[in-house]
Amino acid sequence: MTYKQFWEDNPYLAVVYRKRHKLICEEKNQQMWLQGLYNYKAFRSVLSAFFTKGSPEQYCERPLPLFKTPEEKRKSQEEQIDDIVAKLNQLSAMYSESGEK
After folding, report:
1. 82 partner at 20 to 30 Å CA-CA among 58, 64, 73, 75?
2. Helix or strand run (H / E) with residue 12
3. Where does residue 59 fall: left (phi above 0), alpha (psi -120 to 50 degrees), or beta otherwise?
4. What are phi and psi of 99, to 5 degrees?
5. pLDDT band for position 84 (50/70/90)?
6. What is the pLDDT of residues 27-50, one digit of tens each?
7. Contact assessment for residue 76 and residue 68, using Cβ atoms and an 8 Å cutoff
8. How far apart are alpha carbons 18 and 22 in whole angstroms?
């Protein structure tokens, strides 16, 4: 943001620039984290070749997926539903046991 923009333009512009800067920093942080993950996998595959007697761990052949596919989203939703149903069954069992006594 320039001096002129800060003092002469819309005051809300400073807020927008601040949000933009925050988004850029978050994106850079995600990129650095992903780079660290790739480094970790590379070091792990090299070290496993030296320190294990069996076949060494292979490095990824393809880039890691950044987004879930619709099928993975559906599976995670189904798992969440199953967890909720199990918890509700436990609660109903506890309630029915306490009511019988």
Report:
1. 64
2. helix 12-51
3. beta
4. -75, -30
5. very high
6. 999 999 999 999 999 999 888 888
7. yes
8. 6
CB 48 within 8 A of CB 57: yes
Contact 56, 45 (CB under 8 A): yes
Give every CB contact of residue 37 below 8 A, 6+ residues apart in sequence. 64
Whole-prediction pTM: 0.56
CB proximity list for 13: less than 8 A, separation 6 or greater: 1, 5, 6
User: Rounded to whole angstroms, how far apart are CA atoms 35 and 48?
Assistant: 20
Q: For 49, how many CA atoms within 13 A lie in the half-sphere containing its CB? A: 7
Q: What angle do CA 63, 64, 70 make, to 5 degrees?
A: 120
Q: Which residues, at least 6 apart from 76, have a Cβ–Cβ distance to it below 8 Å?
A: 68
In whole angstroms, what is the distance from residue 43 CA to residue 39 CA? Answer: 6
